[in-house]
Structures are given as structure tokens and as C-alpha cells.
GP-PDE domain-containing protein (Candidatus Ornithospirochaeta stercoravium), 236 residues
Amino acid sequence: MINFAHRGASQYAPENTMAAFNLGVKMGADGIETDVQETSDGKLVLFHDSSLKRTLSIDGSIRDYTWRELSKFDAGIYKGEEYRGEPLVLLEDFLSAFGHSGLHLAIEIKQVGIEEKVLKTVRQYVRDEDFTITSFIRESVIHLASLPNRPQLGFLARGFSPLLLDYLKSIGINEYCPEAITMNENMVEEAARRNMRVRAWGVKTPELMEKVLSFDIYGMTVNFPDLLYKRLHDAV
């Protein structure tokens, strides 16, 4: 099972920053999950929320600002004084640091229209077998699946049905990503029957982590990669 640090080691460090990514790797993660949005001047930035309020304490969204403007904001102080001054991260800088590391990268698209730009950028740094592009946005994964040289793709889902899996499989999406709290054995078996791998998201507590560990799946994203690392290695 691949241990994906969710936005880095986001329980301990400010999410989607180099501090969180580096800490996640130090804690034993063998994968990193992150999110991509585009600024008003076309720069690809790692950021999750549609609003900047929670982590940057300012109004608006990523697309309301240029990269030069965003680069001046503090992306770390919300997590504690020790992270004061931690900046936002450009996708290219993240890939430059981790693209050749052998880590598995899960790149989530958060906006419609940036799909091919993200893919082109990722492929400059990462081998196809080492990354998956994912999204909740069906339009985005359908578009990428239609490309002649499509990458590995994952669909982030809040619901489940065998018909959904049939559809995803039919268009070339090979990874189904259910919310951990909704998972059951039937869901995992249905995916396996279609030769689709499963990666759980929303693993926010050790109890949910234990639930997901009971399934034979590809991986999970966790805010606390140290706990998952310990659990996986204690089991060996």
C-alpha cells in the first residue's frame, strides 16, 4: 500500500508547502498528493481551497491574483509561528524537487481548463509510471482520457456504483478514489474485477486508517504519514 502524504504531512505542517512535503518524506511517505490551480497570469500553483481565507487569511481565490501578488503572502503562519514566512509553491518547483525522487505523485486538478497545461508540465519532470492525475471534476478527467497519449488517471468520488466503474473503465481511467468513510469490501471487489486500482481519500483519523488497511488496495492519502508508516512496518 502506498502511503501518500496528503498535501504533504498536513496534520503537522502547512498544507501544500515545501515544509509539509519534506516532512512527509521524512516521515516515511512513498507518495505525495497535492492540488493544482492557475493564477490570473497563468502560473500553476499548489493550493486546495476555492477560497484563500482559511490558509492565507485574505479574500478571493487563486485566479483573482497574479503569482507575484500571491508569492508575497504567508502560507505557513496559520499552522504556527514556526512556519511563519512559508511561501506558496509553484507546480514546477515542486516537480523539480520531487519529480525524479521515485515517489508516487498524485496531482489533483482543481479547475476546469488547465488539464493539458498541467499534464505537459508534469511530464517534463516525472515518468508516466510515477504520477497519476486525479480530479473530482468529471469534465477534467474525461478530457484527459480522450487524449491519444493519456496519462494514468484517477477519479475522486463521493459515491459508488458498478455503473460508474464501468464508465470510468470504458474511457481509460484506471484508478477509482473513494472517500474512506464510504468504503466497503464490495466496492473494492468490484474495482478489482475491472482491473482498477483503488486509492482512498479522506483518511483523517487513525480509526479510518485502520478501516482502510483492512482492504487490499493500492494506497491511501493521509495527513499523518508517520502513523501509517509505523503501522505498515510494524505489520511486516
